[in-house]
Specification:
The structure holds 2 protein chains of 2 kinds. Chain A is an alpha+beta fold. Helices cover 50% and strands 16% of the residues of chain A. Chain A has a 6-stranded mixed beta sheet with strand order 11-15-16-14-13-12, covered by helices on one side. In chain A, strands 8-9-10 form a 3-stranded antiparallel beta sheet, with no helix packed on it. The longest helix of chain B has 16 residues. Chain B is globular and about 50 Å long. The two termini of chain B are 14 Å apart. Classes of the chains: A alpha+beta, B mainly alpha.
Amino acid sequence: MTKAILWLSVIWLPFLMVYMNVNETKAKKNIILGVTLPQEGREDADVLKELESFKRNEWLSVAVLMVMAAAMWIFSDEHAYMTPWMLWIVFCIVLPYVPYVLSNGHLKNLKVQKGWVQEKRVIRVDTSALPPENWFSPWLFVAPVLVCLLPVLFDKSMAVMYVISAVMCALFWFGYRYLYRNKAEMVDSNAELTAVLTRVRRYNWGKMWLLTAWFMAAFCLVAWITGINSLIGIILGIAVTVLLCWLAFRLEMRMRHVQEKLTEQSGDDWYVDDDDHWLGGLLYYNPDDSRLIINNRIGLNTTVNIARPAGKVFIALALVMILAMPLLGGFLDGGVKKEITLAVEDDRIVCNSGMGSYRIDLDDVQEIKVLEELPSNMRRSFGTGTETLLQGRFSADGYGSMEVNLDPRQGPYLLITTEGKTYLFGTRDGSAVREIYEAYH
Amino acid sequence: MILTFDFSSDVPLYMQLRNQIVIGIAEGKLVPGEKLPTIRALADESGINMMTVSKAYQILKQEGYIVTDRRKGAVVAGQPVSRISEEILHELRVKISELRLAGMKKEEILAMIEKIYEEGNK
């Protein structure tokens, strides 16, 4: 079941990646596939041929990814599916960019051949696009912070999650206001066009941060009202996530559409061309630019200048995180599958699983019980929750918060109460639970 | 007004900025009393160092092309600069000499100066 949900949650990823990449074949701000071309370049037969070839290769990458997904689904173990799943996600992120980088290189060569290259190592600034900023009021961010904190008054078991969410909302305001200074969107010498494009970007950029803050608030409310591990909580959580993703996607596509329409007539006379600073059309490298965070050339996103030391660190970390995903999958698969041991060693009850280890002094035990079935409505605060292992901090009706380390498929379970803490342990085959109960209750 | 910074040029960036603002004032693209971008905004926008922008503004202020106001920041000076320094005349002499050495005749140089001057009036 978990395996199916995981695969269904990402199977659309190649289509989205390719849709976004293919969208870049439409000229926006005179840029096609990361290459700045004059107006005549948009109609050039060689350029159009390259774009057609790019589209074919992109859809070919979708086909390859779908075949891989089918193979990984069929051949992955029923309880060790994280490694192939994460490996496939890495392929989804990388593979559609292979045709992109290749076609970007071909178009750059065509540009040189046709004499469309403009001057190099030049930065231009339109001073008319530097008015005082009209920032969103910080109070718009205070409201989601308060909404995140509201459940703490009623549900202490998940207080850490609510407080972290509130802090995140406050950080979103900080990110919106200070991390990014919204460089003007200059395409050509038309100052009015620059001003409009810049306003559109700044406004939508703020909207995106605000939207994300309210998403956090909505998520906290859903977790509080329904319980995050209940079926309705999961469904509502997914619904809120899907809604945010959809709104973000729609915003990005609308931005691209606006940029496309507004710059339809640009590129006849002088136009901005900083292709020289974009490696493969994807990475910004400009040692002359002191900024770290810069606008992605089309759409709403940002990227970093990898000529800056912090930019190099950022990109290196992003690469490490992407490439480490399959390793993390292997770690999780191994941890989830590993045997759970429950025994008494040196006057301590010891319970070990692949994801956690617990030790309780027998002197501290106040009460010990055997539960034939798991308590109803178990909700995870922190830790692992799969079909074969529950480990970490959970809460349940009638038991409050407790530390859990067990296989949910196999009872009985050992409920241990100490001063201020409750533990629930169980093994893969139900062994050791009754023995320890008989000996120490 | 569009400012251009050429990083492959031998002219220092602060001087490129100073020169473009002087040209902008002379050609009427920047009018007396017009507010210039703040040092921080211009540095953020261009990606060049704040010290570089500050240096250009200081020179412009010393030369009388801009004035700084505590509330408004840097604004284009209300009165046109009337003095013509020895330095400017010397620079003009150097440039005319360079054009002569490049093979241009007096009439050609005068015609070119007139053309540039007229362009500034548009």
